[in-house]
């Protein structure tokens, strides 16, 4: 496992470190805008890299799962709720969550999607603090923690979007870990 940030104060360096690890591809980072020729790029395949090919037959047995996983990714990063929270903030949170989940390649993918938000952003600080707490000590969360997000100006819808992103990135990390184990067994 890689060194991961344990507090939101370490997030800017985690974002920069993850960006350095981002795989170079001819299409750049996979996102919902598609790759070369405008085709839809599957994020899980992009993060798996060379291993994606050996796992494609397995993933093809569940096309709805593949499509819906990609659809959730696109909705969270490019959907209507994204504008209110801010895509850069959501991407920064995704980097931190992926790092805390022990998924450095996923963190690198997210880091390659955009620039780190400005330091000193109280909304970003609250989101990163919440993401770290949900990722490392979820049982410690109370209504006060949700109120702290609202106190920065995030609406209930924004808070739900942040929570969905955190849960989804953890899902992606577990999915990738499982696929990598399956791929290793077949090598």
SSE layout:
Elements: H1 11-21, H2 43-48, H3 52-60, H4 63-78, H5 80-85, H6 87-100, H7 104-111, H8 122-136, H9 143-151, H10 156-185
Characterise this structure.
The structure is a single chain. The chain is mainly α and about 190 residues long. The protein has a single domain (about 15-185), classed as AhpD-like. The protein is built from 10 helices and no strands. It has helices spanning about 10-20, 45-50, 50-60, 65-80, 80-85, 85-100, 105-110, 120-135, 145-150, 155-185. Helix 6 (about 85-100) packs across helix 10. The longest helix has 30 residues, at about 155-185. It is elongated and about 45 Å long. The two termini are about 20 Å apart. The model is unreliable at about 1-10 and about 20-40 (pLDDT under 50). This is CMD domain protein. InterPro entries: AhpD-like (IPR029032). It comes from Nocardia aurantiaca.
Whole-number mean pLDDT: 82
Instruction: Give the second-level CATH assignment, the architecture.
Output: Up-down Bundle
Q: From the alpha carbons, calculate the radius of gyration and give it in angstroms.
A: 16 Å
Q: What count of helical segments does DSSP give?
A: 10
What portion of the residues fall into strands of 2 or more residues?
under 5%
């Amino acid at each position: 496992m890689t060194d991961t940030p344990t507090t939101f104060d370490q997030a800017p360096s985690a974002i920069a470190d993850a960006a350095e690890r981002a795989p170079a591809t001819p299409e750049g980072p996979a996102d919902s805008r598609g790759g070369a020729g405008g085709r839809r790029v599957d994020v899980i395949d992009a993060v798996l890299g060379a291993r994606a090919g050996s796992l494609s037959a397995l993933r093809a047995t569940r096309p709805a799962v593949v499509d819906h996983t990609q659809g959730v990714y696109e909705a969270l990063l490019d959907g209507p709720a994204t504008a209110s929270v801010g895509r850069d903030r959501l991407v920064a949170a995704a980097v931190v969550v992926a790092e805390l989940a022990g998924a450095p390649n996923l963190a690198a993918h997210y880091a390659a999607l955009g620039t780190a938000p400005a330091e000193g952003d109280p909304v970003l600080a609250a989101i990163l603090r919440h993401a770290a707490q949900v990722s490392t000590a979820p049982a410690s969360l109370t209504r006060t923690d949700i109120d702290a997000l609202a106190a920065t100006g995030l609406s209930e819808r924004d808070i739900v979007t942040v929570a969905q992103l955190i849960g989804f990135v953890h899902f992606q990390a577990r999915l990738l870990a499982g696929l990598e184990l399956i791929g290793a067994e077949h090598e």
